[in-house]
Amino acid sequence: MAEGWPLPPALVVLLLSMSAWVTDSCPAACSCPKGQDEVHIMDCNKKKLSAAPLDAPDGITQVTLNHNQLTLFPFLGNVSSNITSLLLVHNRISELLMHQLQPYVSLETLDLTSNSISELRVGSFPSMQLKYLNLSNNRISLLEPGCFENISSSLLVLRLNRNRLVALPSKVFKLPNLQLLEMKRNKIKIVDSLTFKGLESLKSLKMQRNGITKLMDGAFFGLNNIEELELEHNNLTEVNKVWLYGLRMLRILQISHNAIGIIRPDAWEFCQKLEEL
Question: 10 Å Cβ neighbour count for 1?
Answer without folding.
Answer: 8
